[in-house]
């Protein structure tokens, strides 16, 4: 294996493939960013050109900041994402710990039941969810979104985390028990720090779909004061005219926080992906 | 007073019986070693004593009190694990003091006990390091220190030295022996290692398939094994078993001869061909093929010069031999 890795030709091929993939993945982001700084005419004339002196404009950003309550949308998105992620991680980790650590009747069945959600897309249940939200009076609140996203994220979180929790040494947990730590302390103080890379992985996998989601905000919380960023950006897309400057600017700004969160998690994420490999 | 007494302890995982009717007492201050082949239930027995695993039936008393329903932390025990099991995010000092903090002991008492334990184990210089910044031997000493600060009535060690290299093993073994003398506490120690068992134990408990095969002092077990299993398991190289009829005895019986009691003599009763020689410097192990698929090991003191395929004859002292019947019981 190490021989293959050290071979310069192989290493070149691997890097070429990775760089190609990176370029392809980053290209749309690049186009959005570049065009958000161009005039409308320039966007259509030559979508791939960089902004120049005569095509440069900040009109899109001005529109976005003026029209619509951009900061409110931003705040809504942030609250929904952060609270959902927190709940997914907290409850997912707790369920995973219980499944991995305790022997009880129906342990396996419970695990399968929780994992079922991975295979069934939550959007299938949209109508039922909407009915539930209406009858519980949660429509047009951020809680509606938070609850749905938490439910959506839990199956994968439980699945991934329970696998990692099984790898945490039994001796360590037992040492804690003998030292008189409660099960909660063992969970929070011993096990959670050790599965942090896995938690970061789950966080990243959940964060992006939640942040980008248009479906549930549109159905469950379309009111002005609960609009999320993705939904808020839609005001610039009309049936007949679309304010491309504004749309692109809004999207550019929407990318930023995700990027920041991603950078925070990514160090952990890399450790998470490779953690099984070198031990 | 008895430090620990087990009465009819059984443990099963589902259908599988792992411990079968264990009866055992450990006197105060005694050093008891559990030995037995892999999978015979040594660790499980230790975990049942510590309360990490609940016994399916039977009584467990520690210092005269029944502890069947007492959680591990309140049993007055401390355990040292094979994998050290140190808390990776805490410093050595915090690792050692955690249990005392949980018991809400006063700060100065905690500090004093940690200082004392770290002095005993020469850990004073490492108190502010994390486990990842320590060597294997130091980690194991921290694990032992974590047990010592709790001042338990009963120490439980589960193969504490098996992750250490040979030299470190010997040092740590001496350290554990010294600790036992200093603290005078009762200790139960699980090991695979013959030398650890023989040198540390006041009392050895030989286990097989979840049953106690024999309990006794190391020399009792070595000289008077109750059955063929114990005779074969204790002692290295292990005892030779020669069908008795080859030596003029009764059909079906076996004669057990320890390797060191069989010496090379020109007209010995056992004749064969050398198939392998292990020269250890201090002594020499000679493996001899006696025919009929019977391999015999002789341990000769000093450096004995022989080579493979040489014809050789051995003899032994009849009074040092043990006889076993066909079922493996001593006669
Ligand atoms: N949690 C468990 N569930 C089911 N079976 C178990 C469990 N723990 C142990 N066993 C079984 O109990 C038997 C005894 O295991 P134990 O760990 O006590 O052996 P051991 O004597 O300590 O072996 P070793 O010397 O290899 O450490 C084994 O056959 C094992 O498969
Ligand atoms: Mg074991």
Automatic annotation (TrEMBL), chain A:
It holds the Pfam family BPD_transp_1. InterPro entries: MetI-like, MetI-like_sf. Residues 74-265 form the ABC transmembrane type-1 domain. Keywords: Cell membrane, Membrane, Transmembrane, Transmembrane helix, Transport. It comes from the Bacteria. PROSITE patterns: ABC_TM1. The keyword Nucleus does not apply. Gene3D superfamilies: MetI-like. Signal peptide: none annotated. It is a multi-pass membrane protein. The keyword Transmembrane helix applies. It is found in: Cell membrane. Its main location: membrane. The chain crosses the membrane at residues 12-34, 78-100, 112-130, 142-165, 186-208, 246-265. Belongs to the binding-protein-dependent transport system permease family. PANTHER family: ABC TRANSPORTER PERMEASE PROTEIN MG189-RELATED, ABC TRANSPORTER PERMEASE PROTEIN MG189-RELATED-RELATED. This is Carbohydrate ABC transporter permease. The lineage of its organism: Bacteria, Pseudomonadati, Pseudomonadota, Alphaproteobacteria, Rhodobacterales.
TrEMBL record, chain B:
Keywords: ATP-binding, Nucleotide-binding, Transport. Signal peptide: none annotated. The keyword Transport applies. GO terms for molecular function: ATP binding. This is ABC transporter ATP-binding protein. Residues 4-234 form the ABC transporter domain. Belongs to the ABC transporter superfamily. PROSITE patterns: ABC_TRANSPORTER_1 (PS00211), ABC_TRANSPORTER_2 (PS50893). SMART domains: AAA. The keyword Nucleotide-binding applies. InterPro entries: AAA+_ATPase (IPR003593), ABC_transporter-like_ATP-bd (IPR003439), ABC_transporter-like_CS (IPR017871), ABC_transpr_MalK-like (IPR015855), ABC_transpr_MalK/UgpC-like (IPR047641), Mo/tungstate-bd_C_term_dom (IPR008995), NA-bd_OB-fold (IPR012340), P-loop_NTPase (IPR027417).
């Amino acid at each position: 294996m190490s021989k293959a890795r050290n071979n310069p030709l192989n290493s070149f091929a691997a890097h070429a493939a990775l760089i190609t993939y990176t370029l392809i993945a980053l290209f749309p982001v690049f186009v959005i960013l570049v065009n958000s700084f161009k005039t409308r005419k320039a966007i259509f004339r030559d979508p791939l050109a960089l902004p120049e002196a005569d095509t440069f404009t900040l009109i899109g950003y001005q529109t976005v900041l003026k029209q619509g309550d951009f900061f409110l949308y931003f705040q809504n998105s942030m609250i929904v994402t952060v609270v959902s992620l927190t709940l997914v991680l907290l409850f997912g980790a707790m369920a995973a710990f219980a499944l991995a650590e305790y022997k009880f009747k129906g342990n396996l069945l419970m695990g399968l039941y929780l994992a079922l959600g991975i295979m069934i897309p939550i959007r299938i249940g949209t109508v039922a969810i909407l009915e539930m939200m209406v009858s519980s009076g949660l429509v047009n609140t951020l809680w509606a979104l938070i609850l749905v996203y938490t439910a959506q994220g839990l199956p994968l979180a439980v699945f991934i985390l329970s696998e990692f929790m099984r790898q945490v040494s039994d001796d360590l947990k037992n040492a804690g028990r003998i030292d008189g730590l409660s099960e909660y302390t063992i969970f929070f103080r011993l096990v959670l720090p050790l599965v942090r890379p896995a938690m970061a992985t789950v966080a990243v996998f959940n964060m992006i779909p939640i942040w980008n989601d248009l479906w549930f905000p549109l159905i469950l919380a379309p009111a002005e004061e609960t609009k999320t960023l993705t939904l808020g950006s839609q005001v610039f897309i009309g049936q007949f005219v679309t304010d491309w400057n504004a749309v692109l600017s809004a999207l550019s700004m929407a990318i930023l926080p995700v990027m920041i969160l991603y950078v925070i998690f990514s160090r952990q994420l890399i450790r998470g992906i490779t953690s099984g490999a070198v031990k | 007073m008895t430090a620990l007494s087990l009465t009819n302890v059984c443990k099963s995982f589902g259908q599988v019986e792992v411990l079968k009717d264990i009866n055992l007492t450990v006197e105060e201050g005694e050093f008891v070693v559990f030995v037995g082949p892999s999978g015979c239930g040594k660790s499980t027995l230790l975990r049942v004593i510590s309360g990490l695993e609940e016994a399916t039936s039977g009584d467990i008393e520690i210092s005269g009190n029944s502890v069947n329903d007492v959680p591990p932390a309140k049993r007055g025990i401390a355990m040292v694990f094979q994998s050290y099991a140190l808390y990776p995010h805490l410093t050595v000092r915090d690792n050692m003091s955690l249990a005392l903090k949980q018991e809400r002991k006063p700060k100065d008492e905690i500090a004093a006990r940690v200082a004392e334990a770290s002095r005993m184990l020469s850990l004073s210089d490492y108190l502010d390091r994390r486990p990842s910044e320590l060597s294997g031997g130091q980690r194991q000493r921290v694990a032992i220190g974590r047990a010592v600060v709790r001042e338990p009535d009963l120490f439980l060690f589960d193969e504490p030295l098996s992750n250490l290299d040979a030299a470190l093993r010997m040092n740590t073994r001496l350290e554990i022996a010294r600790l036992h003398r200093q603290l005078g506490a009762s200790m139960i120690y699980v090991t695979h290692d013959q030398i650890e068992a023989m040198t540390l134990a006041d009392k050895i408990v030989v286990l097989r398939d979840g049953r106690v095969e024999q309990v006794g002092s190391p020399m009792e077990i070595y000289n008077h094994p109750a059955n063929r299993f114990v005779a074969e398991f204790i002692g290295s190289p292990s005892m030779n078993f020669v069908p008795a009829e080859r030596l003029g005895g009764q059909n079906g019986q076996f004669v057990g001869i320890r390797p060191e009691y069989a010496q090379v003599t020109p007209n010995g009763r056992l004749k064969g061909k050398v198939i392998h020689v292990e020269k250890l410097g201090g002594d020499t192990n000679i493996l001899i093929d006696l025919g009929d698929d019977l391999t015999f090991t002789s341990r000769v003191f000093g450096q004995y010069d022989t080579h493979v395929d040489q014809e050789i004859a051995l003899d032994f002292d009849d009074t040092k031999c043990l006889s076993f019947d066909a079922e493996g019981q001593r006669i």
